[in-house]
Amino acid sequence: xxxxxxxxxxxxxxxxxxxxxxxxxxxxxxxxxxxxxxxxxxxxxxxxxxxxxxxxxxxxxxxxxxxxxxxxxxxxxxxxxxxxxxxxxxxxxxxxxxxxxxxxxxxxxxxxxxxxxxxxxxxxxxxxxxxxxxxxxxxxxxxxxxxxxxxxxxxxxxxxxxxxxxxxxxxxxxxxxxxxxxxxxxxxxxxxxxxxxxxxx
Length: 201
Known about the structure:
3-stranded antiparallel beta sheet
């Protein structure tokens, strides 16, 4: 009986610790984040040429709380990120939270593997699988102006993210060039730039 009680207490302690970690990592948006999202026009893209920008670009990002993902503010952020990456001044194929000043796990990716090649938003994204089979190709980055180089990436990946429509974790398997974009953008969420992986000859 005592063993059972001790086990129950241990399980409760583990659960409490896990809950604490979860709530610590998923903090509410602060005023600066809200102001950034609520501003008008396309978003400023941070670059490594600016010291303060570089600190943000080298930061590890945290998840959004589900309450935010249910809000109109999230939809505004999604629209503004896509408007920014598709603007003629940028004309990119993907963009990540820290590139627009948000240290949060969110990316926008152009799905070249889907009909119409739409841009889609992926909040709270994680890489769950990276294939051993790789592909190497040229990459550039909106946050690293005028630098291009070859990077070796996995050919196929499995991503997981919070589906903003259902609030459930969703998974997707992606291959080819679109998989490269996902890897490039999720690297940003861990403070990694493509130049860190660039092959030197």
